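step: validate -> pass
step: tokenize input -> pass
step: predict -> running
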Amino acid sequence: MIQPPRVALFSRYPEPGRAKTRLIPALGPEGAANLHRRLTERTLQALCASGLAHELRHTGAPEPAFRAWLGQALPMVEQGEGDLGARMARAAEATPVILLGADLPDLSPRHLQAAAGALRDHAAVIGPAEDGGYYLLGLREPMPFLFEPMEWGTATVFSTTMARFAAHGVTPALLEPLADLDRPEDLARWPGLLA
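step: predict -> pass
step: emit ->
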């Protein structure tokens, strides 16, 4: 029997000027940081409701700052040095694991449960993001080739990742696409988040 995966949620401390920087032109440093705070809290609520074991992979502030924000009970691990690929690779050394970002307003517990269920029958699962990246990556075994250098944050991340899967003979399960909230033009889609 395959053990249930743990979910590693990647999030930055909501410090004005350093969080959600692409939204600063529309919201200002404080507004962008506050939106990031709300998105992280929403994602954690979905994680708790999913029933899956989870941890916070944090960066941008010492752990006590995250504890003051998110509480003492949440397991936390510092993301560490390197680009996004290096940080995700560290989180994916122990499997099964689901890697997740915190900028998904439409993420629900069912998406997380679907990803965990897919890992019972597939070596990997991926959730495509509408911008050409991915919002979730689940692995039943380590696949370090997925985290080799690439242009993270671009519209080619999903296609490059799928090509790497194919080159290694892996056919991942696909989740439904979701939109992430990264750019000013994304804000109109979720007006309630700014209330």
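step: describe -> Strands lie at 6-12, 54-59, 76-78, 97-100, 124-128, 134-139, 173-174.
step: cleanup -> pass
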